[in-house]
């Protein structure tokens, strides 16, 4: 296929995303207010708890088998690499731009976590439906592509709510501690603190000798007790409720349905006794893509009303996600294919490559709101990232399809 045909095949899905995203932004305007704050909240809950999980479980249940697991095992590894490499590039960006402490966790989150669910679920099936798509039969391509994208969404959710969540929490706590430390103390407060310390030392008779047993008891901790305390501190920073999000639970159910033969016979297929359950889940899942795209557009409206982040930080994040990560991703996927870790399925390789070229995940904004760290700045970053990703996604998709011919 010629470069122009590949460019058109890559451009059409991105244009569809832009049109529906623009519609979502328009519906969120104050004078229209069809996707105001309350409407976005309820629609987001429907997608998060109902439409998205229904799509994941139906697609994985229909296409996942023991044989396909041999092909898909590298995807979680590939996604983890996108997070780790993005974090390293974000750390370099922070040092170069001297990013303020309260925004450092946000920068790492935006550089490491891509939109591994929403955009892939929109772009990949749309590419398959194009008449000049290089991925063969449109029906098979669309089914397999949606399966790969659904697995990407489930795995990405686990990494975001463990890896990114912990990093942004650590940086937000550190920023809060620095703020408290640097906050000036009035003379009256320091005087009260001095009196209180003298009173405590006089009444309780505490001295260095009294503190010694505490130090000794701390030194008497066994290795296993120290490991247990470290694990406990680490798990305390993980939001297990969000790790086992509905999409993750749906992915587990989809794997069970697809790989356990008795369950698969009961639910999957034209003659399956319980096929109505699978058909109903599939019908609900069809609402996921348009609803998610509208939500993305309505959320971007906040970026037009916020400011406070430096241009250098925005440019750096855009460069990491649109230039450096995609270039590194080509080397990783090609090396994995050369070593036999990835099979010759061009659609699967296309999705692995595309995972490096996506704009930041919208979930990063949710985490920023949760910790109240850089909420307004996150909206501005998302606005510019998604506006520029229209061009970068088209170009990278075209190049990837040319590369995989």
TrEMBL record:
Keywords, ordered alphabetically: Auxin signaling pathway, Endoplasmic reticulum, Membrane, Transmembrane, Transmembrane helix, Transport
Residues passing through the membrane, by range: 6-29, 41-61, 73-94, 106-127, 147-166, 242-263, 283-301, 313-335, 347-371, 383-403
Subcellular location: Endoplasmic reticulum membrane
GO cellular component: endoplasmic reticulum membrane; membrane
GO biological process: auxin-activated signaling pathway; endoplasmic reticulum to cytosol auxin transport
Membrane topology per record: Multi-pass membrane protein
Gene Ontology MF terms: transmembrane transporter activity
Family membership: Belongs to the auxin efflux carrier (TC 2.A.69.2) family.
Function, as annotated: Involved in cellular auxin homeostasis by regulating auxin metabolism. Regulates intracellular auxin accumulation at the endoplasmic reticulum and thus auxin availability for nuclear auxin signaling.
Identification of the protein by name: Auxin efflux carrier family protein
Organism: Populus trichocarpa (Western balsam poplar)
Lineage: Eukaryota, Viridiplantae, Streptophyta, Embryophyta, Tracheophyta
């Amino acid at each position: 296929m010629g470069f122009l045909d590949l460019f058109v095949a890559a451009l059409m899905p991105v244009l569809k995303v832009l049109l529906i995203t623009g519609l979502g932004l328009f519906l969120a305007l104050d004078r229209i207010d069809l996707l105001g704050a309350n409407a976005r909240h309820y629609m987001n809950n429907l997608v998060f708890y109902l439409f998205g999980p229904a799509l994941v479980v139906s697609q994985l249940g229909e296409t996942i088998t023991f044989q396909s697991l041999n092909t898909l095992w590298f995807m979680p590894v590939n996604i983890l690499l996108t997070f780790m490499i993005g974090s390293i590039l974000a750390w370099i960006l922070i040092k170069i731009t001297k990013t303020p402490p309260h925004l450092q966790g946000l920068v790492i989150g935006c550089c490491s976590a891509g939109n591994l669910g929403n955009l892939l679920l929109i772009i990949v099936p749309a590419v398959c439906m194009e008449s000049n798509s290089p991925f063969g039969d449109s029906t098979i391509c669309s089914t397999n592509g949606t399966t790969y994208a659904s697995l990407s969404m489930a795995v990405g959710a686990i990494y975001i709510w463990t890896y990114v969540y912990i990093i942004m929490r650590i940086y937000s706590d550190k920023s809060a501690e620095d703020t408290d430390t640097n906050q000036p103390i009035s003379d009256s407060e320091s005087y009260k603190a001095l009196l209180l310390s003298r009173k405590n030392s006089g009444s309780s008779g505490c001295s260095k000798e009294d503190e010694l047993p505490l130090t000794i008891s701390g030194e008497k901790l066994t290795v296993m007790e120290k490991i247990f305390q470290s694990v406990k501190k680490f798990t305390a920073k993980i939001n297990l409720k969000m790790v086992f999000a509905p999409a993750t639970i749906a992915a587990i159910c989809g794997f069970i349905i697809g790989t356990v033969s008795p369950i698969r016979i009961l639910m999957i297929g034209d003659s399956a006794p319980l096929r109505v359950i699978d058909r109903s889940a599939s019908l609900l899942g069809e609402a996921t893509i348009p609803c998610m795209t509208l939500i993305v557009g309505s959320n971007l409206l906040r970026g037009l009303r916020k400011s406070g982040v430096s241009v250098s930080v925005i440019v750096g994040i855009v460069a990491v996600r649109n230039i450096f990560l995609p270039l590194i991703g080509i080397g990783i996927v090609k090396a994995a294919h050369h070593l036999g870790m990835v099979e010759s399925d061009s659609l699967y390789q296309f999705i692995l490559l595309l995972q490096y070229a996506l704009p930041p995940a919208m979930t990063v904004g949710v985490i920023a709101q949760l910790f109240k760290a850089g909420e307004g700045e996150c909206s501005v970053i998302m606005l510019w990232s998604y506006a520029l990703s229209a061009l970068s996604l088209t170009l990278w998709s075209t190049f990837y399809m040319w590369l995989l011919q």
